[in-house]
Please model this.
Amino acid sequence: AQIVGDAVPVLRIPTLRVDASPDIAIKATQAGAVISGSVLLPLLDARIEKLPEGVVKSSDDLVIVGAKITPKSLGYPITGDIALKLGDAVTLTGMGFSTGLTGQLDLRIRSDNQLAALGEIDLNNGKYKAYGQDLTISQGRLLFVGPMDDPGLAVTAQRKIDTATVGLNIAGTLYHPKTTVFSNPSMPESDALSLLLTGRRLNDSSAADGSVLLNAITSLGIAQGDDILRDLGQKFGFDSMGIDTTGGLTGTRLSVGKKIGDRLLVRYAIGVLTGVGQIITEYQLNKLFSIEITSSPVATGGDLIYRIR
Model:
């Protein structure tokens, strides 16, 4: 069988419009079907209104101990190789983001009916509004070398302020991005991030600006976050400021602290994902031992801490 069309309206809903020009051959036998050919998308207008809430991707290595595994029936096997080409009117907008998309993907339907992709999608004339600032996407590529839902990232978002250019480089994958701050000419990462998100260097920033920077560090997972937090803490008079993890992703918390005398440190910590606040009081007994008391709306506890120096 042959499926051929020219700019056929495939979908018309408020958040997605798609036209397709297919040229596909299907060969079917009792043993299975093989699909080959190409599909051109002359029009794709996608509008993202909101992201799904509470969805966390499980690791591919996740094993549930004691779970009964029922073999999946593949049914009628289908394999294929389809070239998906993006035309000149392919756009993505929403959540402060807008860009054109170009490129081609080789879609492969494997014998287990799983879909894989190989190819590259380029972001053209991209804009991103973050924390009230307009950023230009000077480089943007989505790299597909397997599952379609977790492409590799090579994205640069930046803005120019006076004679300085500051921005973010985003690498890694969609589920595991790695974000770094850059500047030209070179400057401290804390100044670069502050300029990028507030338009002011750190020394000229306000308490409200500090809140914006803290939010960005935790939500974007910036690689230089510890250094930026240290500078931010010094700016606002804290003796300690940082992000630590106590038992997995849900235990990640942001804390700020102030010393009272030589031995007493009082910190306030809030869970990045849980939003639960804690007051942590640490008293240094001597060079090796300290007592730490943690109090929160959920529970109160204490620890005797021994540090090897």
